What does this fold into?
Amino acid sequence: MRLAALSLLVPDYDAAIFFFCDGLGFSLTEDIPQRTKRWVTVSPPGQSIRLVLARADTAAQRTAIGQQAGGRVWLFLHTDDFVRDAAKITAAGGVFEEDARHEVYGTVAVWRDPFGNRWDLIQPKPQPKV
It folds into this structure.
């Protein structure tokens, strides 16, 4: 087994596609019309895992946008260039909650996407060669 996708509640399909694809450079992997909704998936460059962009339709779902993890960071993006990708996220409408900090595992900062989801942007420290 492998993790193939996870669902992300968003208020609008097209706004989410614009943020992830035009803003962050993800690929639109599927956009299939269904009766009253769409099956929309996006993937980070070079990755097979997908985010299913799920439009919130009910009041309970709309309330859960940005709160799917109870206010915790629950999405993690790795980068090989923290400064470059932090600038890309900011230009696309993401908001950093803190300055970058240096941890034992690498450079990291918490940011929110335009829908309120909390992410970590992490530039992992290089692993020693064995």
Helices lie at 13-23, 59-64, 82-92.
